[in-house]
Description:
By secondary structure, this protein is an all-alpha fold. It has helices at residues 3-17, 27-39, 45-58, 64-69. α1 crosses α2. The radius of gyration is 11 Å and the shape is globular.
Amino acid sequence: MTDERIEAIQAVVDRVSSYQDGAPEGTVANELRDGFGEAEVDVSDDEVTRLADAIEEAHGTVSAEEVLSA
Length: 70
């Protein structure tokens, strides 16, 4: 994974994480997809799911690099 790609992914994850508390199920994944589209970053459905799950479980800072490299 390139540094530029992970930085772009992390920026979207940080943005979505900041307002995900109390969001209806599926909202986090949809917001991630929208953000990745805006950032023009190609992220697989599996990666979106893993990131969304981490955001919903963490209730805090999520490291995209750690989630995606696990």
